[in-house]
Design brief:
By secondary structure, the chain is of the alpha/beta class. 43% of the residues lie in helices and 12% in strands. The protein has helices spanning 20-33, 54-68, 83-91, 108-115, 140-157, 177-185, 187-191, 205-210, 221-234, 244-259; strands at residues 2-5, 37-41, 75-79, 96-99, 118-122, 165-168, 198-199, 238-239. The protein has a 6-stranded parallel sheet with strand order 1-2-3-4-5-6. A two-stranded parallel ribbon has the order 7-8. Strand 3 (75-79), helix 3 and strand 4 (96-99) form a beta-alpha-beta unit. Helix 1 packs across helix 2, helix 2 packs parallel to helix 3 and helix 3 (83-91) packs parallel to helix 4. The protein is globular. The structure holds 6-hydroxymethylpterin-diphosphate. Residues 3, 5, 7, 10-12, 41, 44-46, 79, 98, 100, 120, 122, 168, 170-171, 198, 200, 240 line the site of 6-hydroxymethylpterin-diphosphate.
Length: 266
């Protein structure tokens, strides 16, 4: 899944795609690099980010989705926590509703059921403006598993088919470095919940906290690849990344090593 942020303030690439044309071109470039899913977002969820109105979010994402839909066979995902934005995006051709609040907005689960789209349910403690103030867990892995199972049950009860649900541990969303590492080390337990797992660790701040380097998000490729490979070994279904070409290559080499399937001399 390639990240297409149509926002002025995203943590790693805010303001880069300041027109629908630039966003569409970037999305097509990510597809050419090997992305199967393009995730379009119009509201930053970085720590401290200010909320955006539905009108502003729609003004940012709808032209991109409408222009992109006929140009690519890739699946399109809308990264939003607002049901009205998700609805308009799905009607404009998006296939997946990626929600960092796991469809907790009133009516969101019912809306997803009536739209018939796939959904990504992500774990977050708190909300973006304050989530990094003092994250606290007794057992982060157990609590994230419990939350994701509970949300999946709730969403299924609202009518969403089980095979349309993805889950995501929400790396960096209300988590310290220790919490993020416990989740990355415990991905197999999240995979064992029985839903496809999406992992979003690309360019995140925990990489800088481990170091060396990475003060600038653009300098976190090595750490992002290490996290993607850890995810692949644990059996996750997809990674949400900014650097698609390098990630596709790393995953291909990992898969070839695991299968032993590349013939000698190739
Ligand atoms: N991370 C971000 C945004 N959306 N969605 C899922 N499912 N999982 C994630 O880990 C995830 C996400 C944050 O990254 P980014 O979009 O690059 O930044 P920003 O929120 O500042 O736009």
């Amino acid at each position: 899944m390639g990240v297409v942020n149509v926002t002025p303030d995203s943590f790693s690439d805010g303001g880069r795609l300041d027109s629908a044309e630039a966003a569409v071109a970037h999305a097509l470039a990510l597809e050419a690099e090997g992305a199967d899913i393009l995730d379009i977002g119009g509201e930053s969820t970085r720590p401290g980010a200010e909320p955006v109105s539905a009108e502003d979010e729609l003004r940012r994402v709808l032209p991109v989705l409408k222009a992109l839909r006929p140009l690519t066979p890739a699946r399109l995902s809308i990264d939003t926590c607002k049901p009205e934005v998700a609805r308009a995006a799905i009607l404009a051709g998006a296939d997946i509703w990626n929600d960092v609040t796991a469809l907790r907005a009133p009516g969101a689960a019912e809306m997803a059921a009536s739209l018939g789209c796939e959904v990504v349910l992500m774990h977050m403690q708190g909300e973006p403006r304050t989530m990094q103030a003092a994250p606290h867990y007794e057992d982060v892995l157990a609590e994230v598993c419990e939350y994701l199972s509970h949300r999946a049950e709730r969403v299924m009860a609202a009518g969403v088919d089980r095979d349309r649900i993805w889950i995501d541990p929400g790396i960096g969303f209300g988590k310290t470095l220790a919490h993020n590492l416990a989740l990355l080390a415990g991905l197999e337990r999240i995979v064992a919940l029985g839903f496809p797992v999406l992992l979003g660790a690309s360019r995140k701040r925990f990489i800088q906290a481990i170091g060396p380097g990475g003060a600038d998000p653009g300098e976190r490729l090595g750490g992002s690849l290490a996290a993607a490979l850890a995810g692949a070994r644990a059996g996750i279904a997809a990674v949400r990344v900014h650097d698609v070409a390098a990630t596709v290559q790393a995953l291909a080499v990992q898969a070839a090593i695991e299968s032993g399937g590349v013939s000698p001399g190739r």
